[in-house]
Amino acid sequence: MASAKSANRLASPEGLLVLSIRSEHVARIFAGQKKVELRKALPVASFSQVLIYESGGRGLVGRFTAVAVHEGAPDELWRKFGEVAASKHRFDTYFAGRTHGYAIEIADPIEFDKPISKRSLAEHIPGFQPPRSAFLIPAGTPAFTALQKLVASAARRIVTLRPIEPRDRALFVDLVTKYVGRAYADIGEPFARRILEVSDLGYDPDGFLTISKHVFSIYSTAGEHIGFTTLTRKFGGAAKTGPTVLLGPYRHKGYGQATRRAIEAHARANSIRKLYCTAPESETDIVNYLLRAGYRVEAHLQAHYDVGHGELGFGKELDVTNEVRLAAKALPVRRGNLANASAWEQADLVAQVERLFTDSWFPITAVVARSVVEAALSDAAIQGYEEKPRRLVCVRDGDDCVGCVVLVPKRGGSCKGVILLGTSHGRTVVKLLEAAEAVTRQWRRRKLYYLHPIGDYATVDALREMAFVTEGVLRSPYRQGQDVIVLSKFLAKQSR
After folding, report:
1. Which one of 147, 175, 316, 388 is CB 3.0 to 4.6 Å from 245, fit for a cystine?
2. In terms of domains, do 296 and 439 share one?
3. Are residues 148 and 183 located together in one domain of the fold?
């Protein structure tokens, strides 16, 4: 129980306690892992709101509520809080030579969307200096009032997502064309319009392993329409976010992070286990925004969608309850020869692709396999990004298709390849990969890249022997526990 002296610290009128806390402990507070903050000394005046000043110069980064303050001998504090507060070694080191100390119970930690910098604090509070440990700003003082205003402006924003309404479609097209198109040579109004068309359909006829695409409007708590975002659901429980665009007046004010939190809340409510997205390496604001939101770089794709810059692939797992890594399935050794996809009856090829996909990746339905086969057998020429025609390059052993590569042209001149194998015969696999590369060259695609389960070492090694280079490892993109390597090769000289 808190002592009488401690209880007075929570009485009113309250001041604001500013604590200097090291960055690693700040992260644990915001993650909900650190429930108690230890101190050798505290101001006598009352407080219940604690502001966190991150040691190292970032400034005020958040706040929490002090639900209780306990004062006592170190051994008493250890018996009460134990390793909830710190390891025994760190606890003893911290309180060495002390006869008493303090423990602040932490509740409701809130991270600011944008830190309040030391410069900003000094501008609004003359003479402000970062705390060496802790200091209290008394209630009713000019510094108290100024700090309350700064904290209010930095407070975490809250937004909601709603399906886009017809009246906002033209604005969506305009914003996507203006802000996304500036980073890519071949994105214009047709790209944005196609996103809306696919959202209307309720399924994605263009995407590979894509279930659906949904466009949302973003609204503030005051009902202001502040922008748009898109969520594309993939097979295996993952989803791709973006494009996300905000209207000018709402940029750099915390609404981007609020939108990211709203997307994650929507994803969790719909059993999405992982979110991923890409961003141009040159767009530092977007990169920093994603890193602050807890996304991690999983791939660095060179000259991927545009020859002028690389693309960073980001991922964030929302559900990590199953950490078991899946091993690649052992395949029979079957020698095969190249064959045209039209060599099989369509229904037979659908069954073959369904089986191969299950052996190489994960089980898919006949409906999904049929969509791959129908696109591969169509007579559509290679056109723009929106049409995304596919091709199948196959090898056969008798009546069986024992391997194929699905080729999907991407915007900016790249081509994505997905390898489906029912054989581990080395020469047959190489023959298949060489044929897929030849087709990609015929299409005059400048870059070919593969996503492939990293546990299939033989195929990964074969691609490396063919001069494909690693551009990243994606954690469980299509199936939980199945990590995927990204291997790419430039087929033409890169010039802009």
Report:
1. 175
2. no
3. no
> Do residues 486 and 464 make contact, with C-beta atoms less than 8 angstroms apart?
no
Residue with tokens 């099989």: 344
Reply yes or no: is the peptide bond before residue 13 cis, omega within 30 of 0.
yes
CA atoms within 13 A on the CB side of 463: 27
> Who contacts 244 (Cβ-Cβ below 8 Å, separation ≥6)?
227, 228, 229, 230, 256, 259, 263
Which range of 48-62, 284-298, 374-388, 413-427 scores highest in mean pLDDT? It is 413-427
- pTM to 2 decimal places: 0.75
Q: Which two structure tokens, joined as six digits, stand for 410?
A: 């991407």
The secondary structure element, H or E, covering residue 353 is helix 346-360
Alpha-carbon distance 335 to 395, whole Å?
Answer: 9
* Final residue in a domain of this structure, among 107, 127, 154: 154
Instruction: Tokens 């020869």: give the residue.
Output: 337
Which CATH number belongs to the domain containing residue 288 in this structure?
3.40.630.30
Domain end (from 135, 154, 173)? 154
Handedness of CA 330, 334, 338, 342 (dihedral sign): negative
Distance CA 278, CA 287 (A): 9
Contact 312, 287 (CB under 8 A): yes
Query: Which of these, 48, 92, 90, 40, lies nearest to 69 by C-alpha position?
Result: 48
Residues 269-294 have pLDDT tens digits of 999 999 999 999 999 888 988 988 88
